[in-house]
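From the methods appendix. Each design record in this collection lists the tokenized structure first, followed by the designed amino acid sequence. Records were kept in a plain field format so they could be parsed without special tools. The example shown here is representative of the layout used throughout.

RECORD:
FOLD TOKENS (456 positions):
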């Protein structure tokens, strides 16, 4: 109305204005402004009343939650009094049948002592549930997002794999994460099991990270504003899992740094490479070992572990479309140095001494989708236990012989993007002393609910 009034006045012939005319126009304008402000206040009151009523009544139908990837990709809208965004819920159902020549309960990686609860070996024989994951996540407000992943283990235990809050509005490529999460070191470590291309972790991850390294702490990530992908991450934490140990210490138990860079090569090729570093403290860490007579003993380690990881990934898909055919080549090299004090046979002889070890390992795997919904893969891997220095306890621990190594074949069918059936066979020679174990897996994985897109 103001525009119409102004336009109508402009169409009239110009004439000199007296002071009384100017005051009259000003009074008319003030009256119109007051009227519109009153209308706006009335509309705001009606809107607040409608939102309050909607908040106290259940909705007639619940809309489908948006995928987690879409929620994470953009900051949340400002919350209204009607409520916040819905909770994204997803579940991964997984089970398997496992057959091995040798008893999995006696599995040891030659030259790499691990805690008794470390995730090493082929697992339980016969039919069993694999790890079932339940993930809950949602935007908290325009500044934070929260997510928690709970794992139901084959032993009927519920573990908190991840539970963290993450910033969404810092800008300048910065993100802060706080809580429990898988470390960003390497390539495979930060991924959940159901995204792996094989049924189990590589030997190097089992031997030097206890399967997968997760911690309670803080993470700062920065993505550079460049055409070529460049990401830096820094972490500090409690150091609660191997190669660290969970104690009641004040201060930090672990710290990690990682850098990754990647790019496309034309329309059909892409790559990513990185370098990571992890340092963790251990106090009275119990490690399963055997003495020279072959008897099981427990050693206790106190000291530091430093792990370096170099990783690289290459992907190919015709014209960037992986639907029919694609190929992925992936590899990582890990080197660990442990230095500290070791009590040999802490439950028996309890012989203290120094301990130092430099060990390494690598794996290389390729996965080829040769037709829609069908993939085949090959993984080869090897470890180098080195020659650990037990100080005055030299000769009390069985070092074994042979080089731990394994070769694995995989065939996989994906009826849809939400279901997978996998057959895997491995020739495992990680036990040392010439022992060879033929291992078979038949595995299924099913995805229910909202599930975000996987990383590169």
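DESIGN:
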């Amino acid at each position: 109305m103001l525009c119409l009034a102004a336009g109508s006045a402009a169409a009239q012939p110009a004439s000199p204005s007296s002071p009384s005319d100017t005051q009259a126009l000003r009074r008319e304008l003030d009256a119109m402004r007051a009227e519109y402000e009153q209308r706006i206040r009335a509309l705001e009151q009606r809107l607040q009343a409608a939102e309050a009523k909607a908040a106290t009544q259940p909705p007639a139908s619940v809309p489908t939650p948006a995928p987690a990837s879409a929620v994470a990709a953009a900051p949340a809208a400002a919350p209204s009094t009607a409520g916040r965004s819905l909770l994204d819920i997803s579940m991964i159902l997984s089970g398997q049948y496992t057959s091995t020549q040798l008893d999995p309960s006696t599995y040891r990686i030659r030259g790499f002592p691990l805690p008794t609860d470390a995730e090493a070996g082929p697992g339980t024989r016969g039919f069993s549930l694999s790890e079932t994951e339940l993930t809950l996540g949602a935007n908290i407000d325009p500044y934070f997002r929260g997510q928690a992943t709970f794992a139901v283990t084959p032993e009927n235990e519920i573990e908190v794999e991840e539970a963290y809050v993450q910033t969404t509005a810092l800008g300048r490529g910065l993100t802060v994460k706080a809580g429990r999460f898988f470390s960003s070191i390497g390539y495979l470590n930060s991924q959940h099991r159901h995204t792996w291309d094989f049924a189990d972790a590589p030997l190097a991850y089992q031997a030097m990270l206890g399967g997968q390294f997760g911690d309670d702490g803080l993470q700062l990530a920065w993505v550079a504003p460049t055409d070529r992908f460049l990401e830096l991450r820094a972490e500090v934490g409690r150091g609660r899992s191997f190669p660290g140990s969970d104690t009641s210490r004040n201060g930090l138990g672990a710290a990690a740094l990682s850098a990754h860079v990647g790019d496309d090569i034309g329309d059909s090729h892409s790559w990513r490479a990185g370098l990571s570093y992890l340092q963790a403290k251990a106090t009275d860490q119990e490690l399963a070992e055997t003495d020279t007579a072959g008897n099981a003993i427990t050693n206790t380690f106190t000291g530091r572990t430093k792990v370096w990881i170099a990783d690289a990934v290459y992907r190919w898909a015709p014209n960037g479309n992986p639907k029919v055919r694609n190929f992925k080549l992936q590899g990582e090299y890990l080197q660990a140095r442990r230095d500290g004090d070791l009590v040999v046979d802490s439950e028996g002889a309890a012989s203290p001494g120094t301990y130092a070890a430099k060990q390494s390992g690598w794996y290389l795997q390729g996965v080829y989708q040769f037709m829609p919904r069908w993939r085949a893969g090959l993984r080869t891997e090897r470890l180098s236990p080195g020659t650990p220095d037990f100080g005055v306890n030299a000769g009390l621990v069985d070092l074994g012989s042979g080089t731990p190594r394994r070769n694995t074949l995989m065939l996989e069918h994906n009826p849809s993007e939400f279901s997978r059936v996998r057959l895997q066979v491995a020739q495992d020679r990680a036990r040392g002393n010439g022992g060879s174990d033929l291992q078979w897996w038949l595995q299924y994985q099913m995805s229910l609910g909202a599930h975000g897109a996987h990383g590169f």
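APPENDIX NOTE: Residues 84-449 form a domain with the Porin fold (CATH 2.40.160.10).
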